[in-house]
Target: alcohol dehydrogenase (NADP(+))
Amino acid sequence: MRVNAYAAPAAGEPLAPTTIERRDVGPDDVLIEIEFAGICHSDIHTVNGDWGPQPFPVVPGHEIVGVVAEVGADVTRHRVGDRVGVGCMVNSCGECANCLGGDEQYCVQGMVATYAGTDRDGSTTQGGYSTHVVVDAGYVLTVPEGIEASAAAPLLCAGITTYSPLRRWGAGPGRRVAVVGLGGLGHMAVKLAHAMGAEVTVLSQSLKKQEDGLRLGADAYFATSDPDTFAELAGRFDLILNTVSAPIDVNAYLSLLAVDGALVNVGAPAEPLAVNAMSLIGGRRTFAGSMIGGIAETQEMLDFCAEHGIGAEVEVITADHVNEAYERVLASDVRYRFVIDAATLR
Ligand code: NAP
Ligand code: ZN
Model:
């Protein structure tokens, strides 16, 4: 089926309307009529070529929520009419130790990314800035009732990308967690860490968004442009989640960790981050990374959000505003996730 979409024709070029082909619904597939697609900074890195060459034209979008329109003959876990979500991956080998362990995102053969990836039939995947998508049912999540569809979309990437390391590194009561950068990922990290019971501090470039940060669940808020911040918070945190899309002075942030603390990087700038060994040695500190989360964990995160009344703070836009939204994300002027209303693509 031929469907409407928004695509980047080449690296760094503005997105424009186009049509793309979606495969026929196979026995294990689900056809989703897309309602909303979030704009992740990863979409911008990809189309701007920050992460290397891409198979243009690229239809970005890996924060997809919609309604099941058709299911294949062998699909049992989703039914026509169900509200569902698709995140950053649409397939993996399903047989390696990582897939079997629920970490499909680290599939040894490589997960199939939702866009600009190579699908198992050799075709290039195209993402959620479109009206419909066909996805293997095993990679389609159930969006629980109680979370509005537009607010649920960003959970599929921003939500799971912050939930997974917060859980793994034990965010909870008695633990001090700092979130660096209050954008799409950062604002989800604040909500989730707060709901997990941790003491949450936002480290933002300025105090412009302080009121929002405290409303979202932060206990404290500091500007990193103020050098006193680093002196005042030295050795304070058990866990720091860095969500910044640009290079930061990692050593300055490592100095804010307590002994045995961890700085987990989810931000994925093009440029390398220089870590001074002494920043780790003096304090038995860990510098780690984390990529999205597995399928079961993503469902767990969605259920956790429904239970705690958590959704993303979104600004819903029409598809023709996507390029303007990209500019605003690049200028750190997003509160806190742009979400495309896919009805405006029809
Ligand atoms: P975003 O909405 O643009 O948020 C990033 C925030 O970082 C900004 O709002 C800003 O917060 C801060 N920031 C931006 N430029 C900065 C600079 N030069 N110096 C200091 N702080 C700066 O982006 P996002 O969608 O949350 O994504 C963030 C990063 O995570 C991107 O690199 C993205 O590709 C990556 N990502 C990784 C994964 C994964 O699996 N690991 C998944 C999704 C996204 P303040 O205004 O508060 O300072
Ligand atoms: Zn993303």
